[in-house]
Write a structure and sequence with these properties.
mainly alpha, 83% helix, 0% strand, elongated
C-alpha cells in the first residue's frame, strides 16, 4: 500500500510537469517559432514534453491496472493528457 501511495504522488508530479510542458509549448515556444522564427526553444521543450507524455501514459496505465479503474476514468485520464489544462483537471477531480 505504501508503494501505491508513492506511485500516486509520483503520478501527480508527472501530471503537473506534463501539463506545464504542454502549456509552455502552446503559449511560449509555438509563438516564438512562428512569429519570431526561432525554433530551438520549441525543439527543446517539445522533446521534454514528449518524454513527459510517455511517462504520464505509462504511469496512468500502471495506476489503472493496480487500482482497477473503470474504463471511463482511464479514458478521461488519457484524454486529459492532450488537452490544455487537462492534466491539472484530472489530478484535481479524479484523484
Amino acid at each position: 500500500m505504501q508503494l501505491l501511495k508513492s506511485i500516486n504522488q509520483q503520478f501527480k508530479f508527472i501530471a503537473h510537469a506534463e501539463g506545464i510542458s504542454l502549456l509552455l509549448i502552446l503559449f511560449i515556444t509555438m509563438p516564438l517559432k512562428y512569429i519570431m522564427e526561432w525554433g530551438m526553444p520549441n525543439k527543446v521543450v517539445g522533446m521534454a514534453h514528449g518524454i513527459l507524455f510517455l511517462i504520464y501514459v505509462v504511469f496512468i496505465l500502471v495506476l489503472a491496472i493496480d487500482e482497477k479503474w473503470q474504463k471511463r476514468k482511464l479514458f478521461i485520464g488519457l484524454l486529459a493528457s492532450i488537452l490544455p489544462f487537462g492534466t491539472f483537471y484530472f489530478v484535481k477531480r479524479w484523484l
